[in-house]
Amino acid sequence: MKIALIGAGNVAWHLAQALQEAGHEVVAVYSRTAAHSEELAHRLPGAIPLASLDLSGSQAELILMAVPDAALAGVAHTLQVPAGAIVAHTSGSQPLAVLQGIPGARTGVFYPLQTFSKSKQMNFSVVPVLLEAEDEQTLRTLQGVAASITGEVHVVDSDKRKQLHLAAVFACNFTNHLLGISQRILQQAELPRTLLQPLIRETIDKAEKHPPFQVQTGPAVRHDQNVIQEHLRMLQQHPAYQELYLQLTQSIQQQASDNTSE
Asked: In the chain, what are the domains?
């Protein structure tokens, strides 16, 4: 299938390569930053960088919009596409309806549920792709494209996808932030960050095999107040971290109490 990409960030970077490896032809790339579209198009044989959102003369049958959520509605309002082309966004939090009004377009959602960075290689074959479409024909086309790059294809409506995105923020973004805090604490103590790697791997492995709330450990769930107070004292120079520590401790204790009463 001939595909155009709107956006040249982390998602588009990995998605373009996965599509190309699956035999699709990425024919065009647009980014509001010309250097970014040129850089990505250069990696894709036959792709051309676009200077505008007028794709009405393009050969693209599918246009994938991998742009920030805040920009999605504005880009959709400006976008011009060939009659009958499918336009699908890759957002987890935005509804299908945000694409309404693109003249001549069939619309859908093509959301890869993963955290992407250009600098890290990605095995796309295990990345869940969540689909939604305005009609069955469009959905079947998107299912075919998704199945060509991954074995994890799911049809999920906008409301459930928003719930999934919320869960993903806790599982990925917030967890990553906490890992960053832990590394900063180690750096200040002049300790190698590698010391935490076995603990991190075991925590993730255990959470995959058991309900996380049921295998919670640590001073919060034990109500070890001496340790908790000492940790809060150690964080006095970082009041934001101190407040986060306290809120997480209280949340863990409340969840443990709820589990006991169930």
From this structure: 2-156 (3.40.50.720), 161-261 (1.10.1040.20)
Q: Which residue stretches of the chain are H helix? A: 10-21, 34-42, 69-78, 136-147, 158-168, 175-188, 197-209, 219-222, 225-234, 239-261
- pLDDT for position 121: 87
pLDDT < 70 stretches in the chain? 262
What's the pLDDT at 227? 97
Give the whole-angstrom CA distance, residue 17 versus residue 46.
Answer: 13
pTM of this structure: 0.90
Distances (CA, A) of 35 to 18, 41, 42, 182: 22, 10, 10, 36
Rounded CA-CA distance 234/232 in Å is 5
d(CA 183, CA 196): 9
Confidence (pLDDT) at 262: 65
Quick check: helix, strand or coil at residue 258?
Answer: helix
**Residue range 103-147, pLDDT digits in tens:** 999 999 999 999 999 888 889 999 999 999 999 999 999 999 999
Q: CA 224 → CA 69, 144, 200, 232, 256, distances in Å?
A: 42, 54, 22, 13, 14
Residue 187 φ then ψ, to 5°: -60, -40
Render the burial of 160-190: b for 16+ CB within 10 Å, e for the rest.
ebbebbeebeeeeeeeeeeeeeeeebeeeee
